[in-house]
Amino acid sequence: MKDVAARAGVALKTVSRVLNDEPGVAAETARRVREAVEELGFRRNEGARILRRGQTASIGLILEDIGDPFYSALARSIEDIAHRNGSLLFTGSSDEDPARERALTLALCSRRVDGLVIAPASDDHTYLLPDIRAGLAVVFVDRPPGRIEADVVLADNVGGARNGVAHLIRQGHRRIGFIGDAPRIFTATQRAAGYRLAMAEAGLVPDDGWISMEQPTAVGVRLALTRMLGGPQPVTALFCGNNRVTVLALRALAALNLHPAIAGFDDFELADLLGVTVVAQDTGNMGRIAAELLYRRLAGEKGRPQRIVMPTTLIARGSADS
Known about the structure:
Layout: H1 2-8, H2 12-19, H3 27-40, H4 46-53, E1 58-63, H5 69-84, E2 88-93, H6 98-110, E3 115-118, H7 129-133, E4 137-141, E5 151-155, H8 157-170, E6 176-180, H9 186-201, E7 211-213, H10 218-230, E8 237-240, H11 243-256, E9 261-265, H12 271-274, E10 277-281, H13 283-298, E11 307-310, E12 312-315
Helix pairs in contact: 1-3, 5-13, 8-9, 10-11
């Protein structure tokens, strides 16, 4: 910095103000400092700056699977906010394993990240309390935390599924099947509740054989479809609980040469070309809001934990009319 100050003909404090974007420096002076920085190839000592601020300029992100399109879109929007705030983002996948989530989270805490955004796999986050008390900022996304109070950003899972199933009912369907994810997953149970709510509001009582909730696999989805579509009262329409289930169902239906009406929760690549009706989440906005809330907490914002519920959008594309 001394060399920069000498080249620009200013004091060290002036160089510091320019580098930290502080006010009080004339435009011409700031220009000379930046030119000197460029000419000398100066790089400030980020480690020293971090020690002065008491933060590491990094945050962590724990997702179920970074390869999933839903979570990759979420991660990208959080990364953009981190970049805007001068932070690095460290990301890990829990694979829906509570033990792995805990190990990843504590590993990031041991590296002194300033904050965490977590899409939880666990239903017990009391292990985070010591770090939260020590100043760690934490925001949960997509699912709420377990056994602690913390900021969380969610989609309207019940309302979205309700609207999707109600759309199928408006198309004249009365026997509607539901294929969801494992019942231990918060979003799966919420969307199943939305399905039941829409059916009840229409005076319809779903048969137990019309509902399947388990970890989605190609074999499991195919067996569920065979049962729902092959019984004495086959369903005429399907509502799928997430985009992975929808894709597996479309593949199985093509193999079985069956063509019920179909709608699903979550948009997915090529859904528009295939004409699949979906209940879409604004994933990017969800990630942005979660990250901005995290940085507000890091900046000192106080108050009770916030629970933000994001609306969903029904996108009708014709597949519900079959």
